[in-house]
Structure formats: C-alpha cells, structure tokens
Amino acid sequence: MPDQKTIGFVFIEGFADWEYGLLAASAVEWFGARAVSLTPGRRPVTGISGFRLAPDRSAGIDENADLDAVAVIGSDQWAGKTPPDVAQLLNAVATRSGVVGGICAGTLALARAGMFEQAKHTSNGRDWINGHEAGYAGHGNYLDVPHAVTDGKIVSAPGSAPGTFALAFLKTLYPERGVDLARMRTLFAKEYAEAS
Predict the structure, then answer these.
(1) Taking a C-beta distance cutoff of 8 angstroms, is the pair 158, 125 a contact?
(2) Could you say which of 72, 124, 176, 184 is the most buried, measured as most Cβ atoms within 10 Å of its Cβ?
(3) How many other CB atoms are found less than 10 A from the CB of residue 172?
(4) Residue 167 domain-assigned?
(5) Do 39 and 59 touch, CB atoms closer than 8 A?
(6) Is there a domain that residue 1 lies in?
(7) Rounded distance, CA 56 to CA 180, Å?
(8) Could you tell me what percentage of the chain is helix, strand and coil, using 3-state DSSP and rounding each to the nearest 5?
(9) Concatenated DSSP letters for 137-163?
(10) CATH number at residue 176
(11) With contact defined as beta carbons under 8 Å apart, do 98 and 70 qualify?
C-alpha cells in the first residue's frame, strides 16, 4: 500500500492491556495501517494481565523516522519516580506533523514533552495529572471530560476511554475516511446503548 501509515505504540513495564487493542486492531484491520510496538531500549515488557510483549523496535528516534503517528499507552510507571523519557520521539513525530496520542498515565509523557503547551487535552482527572506533573506547560488547557480530546494532531484520553481514544486518534490520522469512522462510532455506540 503506497499510502499505508505507520503507527508506533509505546509500551513500558506494567502497560494497561485494554488501552491499545481497539486502536491497534482497528487501524490495521479497517484502515490498512501498520502497527509497530516500541519500548525504551527495545526491552520486552509485561502488561497488567501478565502477557509479555517483545517489541518490534526501541523508542529511539533513529529507528522511528517512518512513523506517521505515535500512541503512548498507560502504565503506573509513567507516574513513578523515574519514568522513561520519550520526549525526543514525541517531538520528532509532532515536528513531522504526525499524530501524537496518550491515554491514561501515558498522558504524563505528553505533558513532560510539552505536547499540551498549546493543546486542549484530558487525562485521568485534573487533580491526578497535576499531582504527578505539577505546573506542566499547558495545564490551563485541561478539559475535565470522560472521553478523548483532540486538538490539532494531539489526542489524549483517560484510561477509561479506549473507545473514544481509538476513534479520535484514527479520525485525526485519517480525516478523509469519514464514512468508515462513522461506521466504527456506530458499532462502538451500539454496544453501550444495548448493554443495560
């Protein structure tokens, strides 16, 4: 596919298994994207479920010059005392006008990289993000909402919103695919409308 887009998914130890599945699978199956897994140092990591992930690449910028987008997946370690630094990767993708997304504690990596300085965004709650990254650039742009937020090419979401994160991310990466995105939204919404 000549116009195939490549999305990097950043995982660290203790990654939240439920936060990337809808986005990764939908991007590949319905949009023809290529998904690659990235970890700092290209080290294997284990998710909350205990599933082990052997990454395709490191999170270094040299290995990822082809990325059209990057999604930082949550883990409690992003909120730890010595979280990995992926700012160079995020800024490199943003500089190329790529999509940069973060969900749950992955939003802390975006805050540290300055992605929210000019962008409306959300996370796991205003007090939560400020408690972990007090005074980060753009903290006044925080929106306290339970769904994903998009501003330009920056996408953020609380950990409880993998569905809207997937939709918002794909809408930003594939703005021309409105019909497919509408189908996807209808499919996701139907589950919640009928489950009671």
Answers:
(1) yes
(2) 72
(3) 20
(4) yes
(5) yes
(6) no
(7) 28
(8) 40, 20, 40
(9) TTGGGB---SS-EEETTEEEE-TT-HH
(10) 3.40.50.880
(11) yes
Q: Is residue 92 part of a domain?
A: yes
b/e sequence 34-63, b meaning 16+ C-beta within 10 Å: bbbbbbbeeeebebeeeeebebeebbeeeb
With 60 as the cut, is the pLDDT of residue 1 above it? no
Query: For residues 31 and 177, what is the distance between their CA atoms, to the nearest angstrom?
Result: 9
Domain range for residue 163?
Answer: 6-191
* Residue given tokens 């490549």 in the structure block: 6
**Does any domain span residue 196?**
no
State the total domains in the chain: 1
- Which are the contacts of 91, defined by CB distance < 8 A and separation ≥ 6? 113, 114
pLDDT of residue 171: 98
